[in-house]
Amino acid sequence: MRFSRVLECWEVHAEGEIGRVVTGGLPPVPGTTMLEKLRHLEEVDDSLRRFCVTEPRGRPNASTVLLLPPTDPRAHAGILILQPDRTHAMSGSNAICAVTCMLETGMVEMREPETEVVLDTAAGLVVARARCGGGRCREVRLAMPWSWVWQEGVEVEVPELGAVRLDVAFGGVFYALVDVAAFGLSITPAEARRLVELGMHILDAAKARVVPEHPERPGLRGLSYLMWYGFDAEGRAVNATVMPPGRLDRSPCGTGSSARLALAFARGAVQPGDALEFHSVIGSRFSARVLEAGEVAGRPAIRPEIAGRGFLFGHALIARDPEDPFGGHLLSDIWGPGVEG
């Protein structure tokens, strides 16, 4: 059979959140930096993203991680995150998937007890320290991009809900952070559908009203996700990121946890050296720590560390048959309420 495009992929998940890591067959992505490459995929040619993430090759419960040659000589690899709505600059869970894949498939030499892997992302360099043993990558600790609050207490008019108060923070991408207790909800599997439906409703309204932009990375702009945050019945910190067009992140969300830490720092609730844990809707866990404090364009900022586990569970080729007329479709029955048409 003759294919017009073939990509080699490893299936990986980080604390339950799937990242399909593309390791072979990728075409060159134009750009001299990862941010320029992201903007090319966003503004010039979106076909690679649509090939990877939409039906029949994509599925709603996974992201695709492009593993690219780095543009920064200090890095081992560059990554871009493809999702149904757009290409994203950074993702903690997907970075964990990428590092686990590179080490366990031999793309980067594994050294026990710890291997350092540097990732080139559109949000900045991310240094990963992987705890290794018995030929396995046991845990990945990510020194995340500088994280900071763009604006607290933003009021957004949401149809049928009225004014909704949220905070906007950057943790690698921009988040609308909403306290789940304000809506009488809890971050549990039983509430998952309601969290998605309500979260997408608020996020759509917020995107029309709030357009943050990174002051040091022109073109890195706009809200990516809404993250519900709160505490469970046992007092543990829980997160649930709503990912367009409509599903929940299965992990506690690395960039979202970083944004939540930045908000806590702005409110004086955490300081450099403080450590805590974040839990997900399925009960998985990321450990987190505030590495240091600093500034981004004069705004108080922190460098968070996020740690979690990655697991390989599959190896596949995805391809395009030039005679296949189907591709690029999404339906709201499984992809979520944000699908148009």
Describe the structure.
The structure is a single chain. By secondary structure, the chain is of the alpha+beta class. It has 2 domains: 5-143 and 311-335, Diaminopimelate Epimerase, Chain A, domain 1; 147-307, Roll (Diaminopimelate Epimerase, Chain A, domain 1). 19% of the residues lie in helices and 42% in strands. The protein has 6 helices and 18 strands. The protein has helices at residues 34-43, 47-53, 92-104, 192-209, 254-266, 332-335; strands at residues 5-14, 17-24, 62-68, 77-82, 87-88, 114-121, 124-133, 136-143, 147-158, 162-170, 174-179, 223-231, 237-243, 247-248, 275-279, 285-296, 299-308, 310-320. An 8-stranded mixed β-barrel has the order 9-10-11-12-13-15-16-17. The radius of gyration is 19 Å and the shape is globular. 46% of the residues are buried.
**Multimeric state:** single chain
DSSP helix fraction: 10-25%
**CATH T-level fold name of the largest domain:** Diaminopimelate Epimerase, Chain A, domain 1
H/E series, N to C?
A: EEHHEEEHEEEEEEHEEEHEEEEH
CATH homologous superfamily title of the largest domain: Diaminopimelate Epimerase, Chain A, domain 1
Based on the coordinates given, report the CATH architecture of the largest domain: Roll
Strand order of the largest sheet: 9-10-11-12-13-15-16-17
Structural class: alpha+beta
Instruction: Round the Cα radius of gyration to an integer and report it.
Output: 19 Å
Give unreliable regions as ranges: none
CATH class of the largest domain: Alpha Beta
Proportion in β-strands: 35-45%
* Global mean pLDDT: 97
Shape: globular
Number of helical elements? 6
Query: Main β-sheet, in a few words?
Result: 8 strands, mixed, barrel
What is the count of β-strands? 18
**N→C terminal distance:** 33 Å
